[in-house]
Design a protein that fits this description.
Blueprint: E1 2-5, E2 9-15, E3 32-36, H1 38-48, E4 53-60, H2 63-75, E5 82-85, E6 90-96, E7 102-107, E8 126-129, H3 135-147, E9 151-155, H4 164-169, E10 172-176, H5 179-184, H6 190-197, E11 203-207, E12 213-217, E13 220-224, H7 237-250, H8 255-268, H9 282-287
Parallel strand pairs: 1-4, 1-8, 2-6, 4-5, 8-9, 9-10, 10-11
Antiparallel strand pairs: 2-3, 6-7, 11-12, 12-13
Helix pairs in contact: 1-2, 1-7, 7-8
The structure holds alpha-D-ribofuranose.
The site of alpha-D-ribofuranose has 15 residues, from strand 2, helix 1 and strand 7.
Length: 288
């Protein structure tokens, strides 16, 4: 069982020819609303990759909540740990340019009301967290998971000031090229940082966009290429990677096989607009 302790958002998606600079206005296409949030995206990805998944999170009592939860409900993610908060459902305002790159502005809303008390550890399971919930609650959930002997996976996104305790509580850290410096607390080449951090015995996974991904543990390094796809939107690709990686570990794959599975899943996630429209299922990942 994978428990995701994470955010749930409604995403406002807006395609633009190019991302605006500071103080600049650019005209975009029609706005689209879609389910998102790093926690929800990762829970969906893990479920579609074949795992049993529970999501602990919060939404508001508003019109956006049902849409934010729609894919999770349809795919069979366990939502019994969901809180209905007084604040509005979290919202992300995302602009996507013609090359698939994005800018995201986040209003956390109900995500601020998620509590570690809502998380019940599952013996032998995996706890997967990101950094869109209150940090103190995420740390408390990680401590509970470690005490119960769960495997802990911390996705370092979104980046900024990574607490040393969060790194210490993680068995596995997943970071991209920018986030890895926050995790390490120093600046160096991303691969060098990943390999160095892994000397502690933790598994460090570094996602490299079109270049694929690498994992390091102790003195060992694994690499996996990205699949060749037609990139429409990279939003949520990292989340799909994290969910698929956790699902692969949950079914007993080793680190190298889990990395290859996750890299294929993350590539496929780039082929549709929004974070969840192209989340691949297990069959599609195995075929990629
Ligand atoms: O990682 C992509 C996600 O980040 C989006 O779905 C958005 O909601 C923000 O949380």
């Amino acid at each position: 069982m994978i428990v995701v302790f994470g955010s749930i958002n409604i995403d406002f998606l807006l395609r633009v020819a190019r991302l605006p600079g500071e103080g600049e206005t650019v005209a975009g296409q029609d706005v689209a609303l879609a389910p998102g949030g790093k926690g929800a995206n990762q829970a969906l990805a893990a479920r579609k990759a074949g795992a049993a998944v529970k999501l602990v999170g919060a939404v508001g009592n508003d019109a956006f909540a049902d849409l934010a939860l729609a894919n999770l409900v349809a795919s069979g993610v366990d939502l019994s740990g969901l809180r209905r908060a007084k604040r509005p459902t979290g919202a992300a305002f995302i602009t996507i340019d013609d090359t698939g790159r994005n800018h995201i502005v986040l209003s956390p809303g109900a995500n601020q009301d998620v509590r570690a008390a809502d998380f019940a550890p599952v013996a032998g399971g995996i706890l997967l967290v990101q950094r869109e919930l209150p940090e103190g609650e995420t740390l408390a959930a990680l401590r509970k998971a470690k005490d119960a002997g769960m495997t802990t996976i911390v996705n370092a996104a979104p980046s900024s000031g990574f607490a040393a305790e969060m790194r210490d509580l993680a068995d596995i850290v997943i970071a991209n090229e920018h986030e890895i410096a926050d995790v390490a607390g120093r600046v160096d080449a991303p691969e060098a940082l990943a390999v160095d951090l892994a000397k502690t015995g933790k598994t460090i996974v570094l996602t490299l966009g079109a270049e694929g991904a690498l994992a390091a543990k102790g003195g060992q390094v694994w690499r996996a290429p990205a699949s060749k796809v037609n990139v429409v939107d990279t939003t949520g690709a990292g989340d799909t990677f994290c969910g698929a990686f956790a699902a692969a570990l949950a079914e007993g794959k080793d680190i190298g096989a889990a990395l290859a599975f996750a890299a294929a899943a993350g590539s496929l996630a780039c082929t549709g607009l929004g974070a969840q429209s192209a989340t691949p299922d297990r069959a599609a990942i195995l075929k990629a």
